[in-house]
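Incident log, support desk, overnight shift.

02:14 A customer reports that sequence design results differ from what the structure should imply. Their input is reproduced verbatim below. On-call engineer (initials T.W.) acknowledged and began investigating.
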């Protein structure tokens, strides 16, 4: 990058961010299935349409960047719910599933847009699959950490289990949110999906010789298991 390009980079980064945030705002407000045109995104950002095309190679690149922004917001909200320092396994599962339900309820158009193609991080993988993988990886770190304190070697179960739970949760909540006459209430859905997740966790734990109490504080479980392992 030349010196001139380097001087302009912060300015260009700022414009790119304005464009992406403008697009996210308009997508939130748009009716289901309606594409927001670039000229409207530019106007909302207070820029000329030509500026958008100078910052992004085309609509595909802009859409990938928008999906990355949406995915980052989703992950940030779910990461807060996954705080292992606060709550029992059951409470953490209920809180996390509730976080997914709340996000999809409050941002239906963003969730819809996230499912329309890839993000900028991996153009060969659709954005929703990449998002599920990111959340599963975060959850997997907690599971492998728990296994590590008692000397259990990861045999791949953690990877399969966390991906299965996260993908099941997203798909089930999406189906419920898109159903005009859902059988379950919001609270029933959260309890049901959290229950499914717990049974998966419990089954994998028992296969490795661990008996977990879903209503005990998770930090206490980790401490007790670590003491017993020592």
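02:41 Re-run completed on a clean worker. Output:
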């Amino acid at each position: 990058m030349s010196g001139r390009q380097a001087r302009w980079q912060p300015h260009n980064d700022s414009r790119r961010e304005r464009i992406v945030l403008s697009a996210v705002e308009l997508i939130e407000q748009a009716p289901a299935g309606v594409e927001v045109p670039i000229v409207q995104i530019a106007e909302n950002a207070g820029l000329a349409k030509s500026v958008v095309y100078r910052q992004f190679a085309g609509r595909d690149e802009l859409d990938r960047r928008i999906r990355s922004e949406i995915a980052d917001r989703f992950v940030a909200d779910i990461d807060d719910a996954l705080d292992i320092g606060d709550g029992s396994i059951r409470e953490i599962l209920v809180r996390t599933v509730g976080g997914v339900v709340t996000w999809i309820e409050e941002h239906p158009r963003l969730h819809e847009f996230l499912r329309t193609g890839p993000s900028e991080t991996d153009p060969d993988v659709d954005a929703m699959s990449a998002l599920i993988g990111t959340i599963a990886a975060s959850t997997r770190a907690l599971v492998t950490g728990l296994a590590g304190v008692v000397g259990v070697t990861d045999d791949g179960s953690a990877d399969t289990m966390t991906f299965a739970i996260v993908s099941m949760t997203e798909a089930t909540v999406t189906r419920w949110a898109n159903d005009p006459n859902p059988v379950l209430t919001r609270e029933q859905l959260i309890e049901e999906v959290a229950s499914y997740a717990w049974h998966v966790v419990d089954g994998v734990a028992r296969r490795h010789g661990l008996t977990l109490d879903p209503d005990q504080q998770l930090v206490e479980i980790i401490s007790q298991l670590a003491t017993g392992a020592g």
